[in-house]
Every structure is written in structure tokens, then in C-alpha cells.
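step=predict obj=Zn-dependent hydrolase n=422
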Amino acid sequence: MRPDLATPLARAERLFAELADLSADAPGVTRASFGPVEDAAHAMITREAVALGLDTRTDAVGNLYVTLTGQDRDAPVLMTGSHLDSVPHGGNFDGAAGVIGGLVLLEHLLDGPQPPCDVTLMAIRAEEMIWFPEHYLGSRAAFGVLPADAPDRLRRSDTGRTLADHMTEARRDPQAIRDSRAQLDPNRIGAFVEMHIEQGPVLIEAGCPVGIVTAIRGNIRHRFCRIEGETTHAGGVPRQSRRDAVLAGVELAHAMETYWVEAEAKGEDMVLTLGEFTTDARLHGITKVPGLLSFTLDVRSQDDTVLALFEHWLQKQARDIAERRDVRIDLGPYTQAAAAPMDARLRRGLVAAAHACGIDSFELPSGGGHDCATFAGQGVPSAMVFIRNENGSHNPAEAMDLADFGQACAVLCAWAGAYLKL
């Protein structure tokens, strides 16, 4: 039977509208990590939680926890949540759907018997890597596993100022990260379930409102790749004498796509993206052979072995092309996030909850990274519910239908009732 969520969903609709208004930044919304608009979003959730009579606290690094207290405060807690920051000029639902959906769950549970354990919504800071080049910043900081030098090493993409500066400005404590001070104990968490919009077209194309995630793809990201050749005259230098950075990059890109096609043919899970591929317009032009190319590379898979083998191949391929074309290829440093399989028992429970509610669902991998991966990496049983969402994410055209959001909330609430044995 589907739970009655009319009142919580009315609150959710109002909060989505308020969130869009407070973070409007045409043509979309912007909630920068450790910025005043992200602060305002956290304050909005805190206000609503207090109005509902729920407990709230904010940890040293700025993560917000909203708790419905259980009968046994020492029992492992059931957690849900997501992030409230956004990419620049992004959509209103990425991350926020999981936070507001968590509030729907808590408001729903308020109408029933007291749960046997605490149920906590976590509004997580700084998930969007576009602001600070470190994946899952807020959730990793909560577990005390962010590199100790992060506050002083990481600089925000728009301001150039350090994470420490922005945290201090937001009245948070960067020293907690420097000291690896954990704000969460994984042994105290019974399960974590994150609700999130799907960031691809799979649910839309299948005509299905809800997806249950099998795994979150791990990734290897090279943000600062450079190919250095020689800038020369476009008409005066023959092909064999050129050290063309762009053609070297094109050869490497073609080799990577060929590798990708072959990996798919072998049944391997892999996606690969050259997110930037550019020369410097101040140095190059139509009459010049380009001597410098910059690019970024993002490769993802549910299988960490696939990522490791690709990285080994990539380094060798870059060396071979550099030698053959007499250029220098520097792939630069890279970040790596491990793949995160979702807990099989929780997945089965979510599938059963969708079936009990009469809601169509199926299982699929998550191509995007999510804070849920941090919880899974800490040994916490973890799962994700995807919501059908048109036009992808990280863009102002995100179009999650509130009816689909309501169906995903129904699945989450039905599953939580079974998990808590209410």
C-alpha cells in the first residue's frame, strides 16, 4: 500500500519553489560550496525541521543533521540525505531532491509510532566537485577521511581562495579537517539511503518513474592534461616537420575511443569523456600550427580493475604518441574515486517497496558520483533511489516532475517502514 504523503509533499513543493527563488542565477540556479546561498539553503531546511519539532545540529564542517529521535538512542541510526550545493547555473533538483525527500520521510514518520532507532536526514556540504577539486568533500570530511592538507591546498574555482578561507567565512572549522576529526562513526549507522534525480535518460526512455541503483561508478579524473609541441607557420612547415599539439591530441582521443569501443564489446562497464579540449586563442590562430593543447579526461566504471587497466594503457599510449610526434604529453595529477556497489539487501528491500506501492521501477547503475559512495566506502550498508528526470542534470533545464518525486518518496517511506518494522 502506498503511504499517504499529501501534507509532506505539499511542504516539499513549497520548499523547491523557495529554493529556486533564493538561489536563482539566470539561466539556472547557483549554490556555491561554502557560499552564502548554500548557507541559506541549509538555513531553510533547519527552519522547517524546527517547525516540525525535529532535532537539528550542524557539525564542525557544516553538515546539517535533522533527527527524529527513536526509542533506543544508542541503536544504529537510519540515515538518508544528499547535498544542497549546485553547479554554476545548474538545475534546482540535483542533490536538493534527496534532502527535501528526506524531510518528507521524517514528516511522514512523525505521524506514526516512535521508531526503534533515530532516523536522521543529513544535508551534506560541498558535493559538487566543480567548486573544489576533491570528490565528496563534505561527506568525506564528516568521516574524517579527507586529506589533512585539503583546507589549505584546495582553492575554489571562482574565487581562487582556499577551502579554509571559505569555511571560516561560513563560520565552520577547517581545523577539524586538518586534524582528521570524524563527525560520524560508521559503526553507529545502520543504513544510508540517498534519493537523487537520475542524471541520464535511462528512466525517461524506459517510461519508468523510479530506479534502484546497483552501483555508483568509480572514476579517474585528469583535470590538467597538456600537450606541448611547437607553434609554427601554417603554410611554411611541411607535415613531417610539424610538432602539432592538436593532431597529437586527436590521435590520443581516437585511441581512447577505440579502447572504449573494445571494452564495451568485451562486456566491460566504462564511460569516457573529454570535457575540455582547447588551444589558447591568445597564442593560436588560423595561420598557426598549434603548439599547446589543454584537455580534461573523466573515465568511469563500476569495476575498479577496468579503471586501473585503462590508466596503465593511457600512460603508455601517451608516451608512444609523444615519441612518435615529437611532442610532450603531460597527463598531470589525477584524482580517483573507487566504485561503490550498493548493498544487496537494501536493494531488494527497495524493489519490494516499489512493488508493494504499485510503482514501476528497475535497477540501473549510477554514472554520476554521489555522497552515498562515501558511506558505502566506510562499510555502511548503502543504497540509492533514482527519480526520473528529463534533460539530464547540471544544467538549468532539469525537469523532475513532482509526481515522480512523490512516487520516489513513497518508495522511500514504504521501505523505511519495513526496515524499522513499523
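step=describe
The mean pLDDT is 96.
step=end
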